[in-house]
Amino acid sequence: MVNLLFVGNPGSGLTSVICGLTKQSYTPNLESHILYNGLNFIDSNIKNLKKTQVLMSSASMIVLVVDCTKLNNVEDISKFWEEQFKANDVDCPIILCFNKMDLLNDSQQKQVQKLYGSQKKIKASVFELYVPVSTKCPDSMASLFRGIQSTLTDVEEFPRAPLINQHTKKLTEKFLKAVERCFRQLDHNRNHILDCRELQHFYTDVMQETLKEETFNEMFTSLKKKSVPHVQTKDMTKGLTLKGFEYVMHSYCKRCFYNICWNLVQIFEYNKNLELNDEAFPETVPLEEKQFYEFTQDGYEFLESIFSYFTENELVITNEALNRLLYVIPEDLGCDLVNTKEQFECFESKLTLNGWLSYWSKKILENPKEVVQQLAYLDLNQVSGKRRDWIEIKEKSSKNKRVVHGYVFGPNKCGKTWFCNQLRCHDCVEQKFTKNNQTYINRIDDEQKYIEDKDEYRFLMLHEVSSDEDTICETLVHELDKADFLMFLYDSSDAYGLSQLLNIISVVPSSCDLLASASVIACKRDKPGVSQHKQDGSEYNIEAELELFGMQPPLDFQVSSHITSGTHEKFFADLFSMYLHLKGTKCEKETKFQTQVLLGSVVALTLGGCYFGYRHYLNKKNSK
Fold first, then answer.
1. What is the rounded end-to-end Cα distance, in angstroms, of the chain?
2. Which pTM was predicted?
């Protein structure tokens, strides 16, 4: 139902105007609602201001009727009514109707017309249209009715409210986001300006016109005079900046060229709510058990291209640039990277390229549908069909998956948190108790080349399991099937460190086939070593105890506050590579793989950090 709300000061002639439009006979007690030609004409009473304000919120259009013979009525347009429209956040079209024009002489009519009679003044106001009428003149009433119908049609095709706030004359946040996304996709040269050739696409597709170089130069010169840098010259090429493009779109709105604004956003896949059409998003289908989504090579290259656009090919992104990058994503999709970037690899508090890629690698596992929607907004290319190639479905058993999951167990204060933080190159306070399970992820280079196809996008995700007994049991029951390998850590400087770890290992189901390939790591080897003892005081034969569980001897791993963070990348790279090798090897029942990793000590080499040296050997023995 289209609701036409008529408002005005007492005695302005609201009822008479409604009667004239609906061809009703005037009666003082006329019903407040009249249906006519599919329109619901609503007569309001300003004496009941609260009811009028409620009616404003549900109106499809408001017609402000003003008695032009009364100066106080005319003054109330700006002093009272425009303030009411603003206070009640009215975003429907408003028509200004000057009534009782027949009671004015020619001189008085001209004087009144000066107020809102010109198109320029109407466009600068909150009103869509200005119509002078007299209820005694059928032609003027017919003119008002045509104005109502044409405005309703135009507003339905080219809505105003999503684009601009008519009270402040500022572009809406949603439209600014859409304009910036359009700018990025028009910027084919990826230099953050729109040159003459790039703007030609805008003129051809949006305005159905040809942009001549002379016109472009005139625009460039005009915008150059503005206080905000609307234009720039880069590498001998001049063009509009984002601010300049926003200024142009703002000008179209203020001059009521709403059709141009809507042509632009619709070409770039937006609907009337200024959200991307469903067709813009890559399809995600329901997954079967043990299936998950991962990014393809094309998907990661796409992610890198976005990062590079805002960093000019640097390997870190400033906080300001990161906020700018993510700005075009709608608030209801809620990308949390700005608030969570410290959970990923950073350098001097700036997110690195690896941290950027790691964030999305983690998110695509958690909520693939939301992620592809977020990334569709970030896409720098207009061809939506390519987005189908961003993601693919993988099986847990896939040997070529890009994200490998390792679960890290160990007693309290053994160094798990510090160890896991080395994966994302973070410093960490030693002996910080982890109350809940934590996740760490970073990109890994396959230095050992155990796989035939070189893939530069490989990620290791470590799940640090809290030492709380209930949490350990819950993890083993509900998450063990997600693990690709297990790691067990203990404090080698604590005489009972191994004993505490064996208590944890003992609750792992014997049917778990990951135990045989699990790594046991002796942490804190930079501290004075001690013998490992059982609870009764007798000394452990460490290798023999681990062999009872079908496990290999422990690896040494240094944990020291004197070691620069991020020095153990090679360890994690080879850990990942070892997993890929074991995953890709066909194991017979009679064949046993024994993995021995010899770890050297950490030596400070340069100001840039330390190098954690070790050698990684794989030996195969046949037990036939």
1. 84
2. 0.85
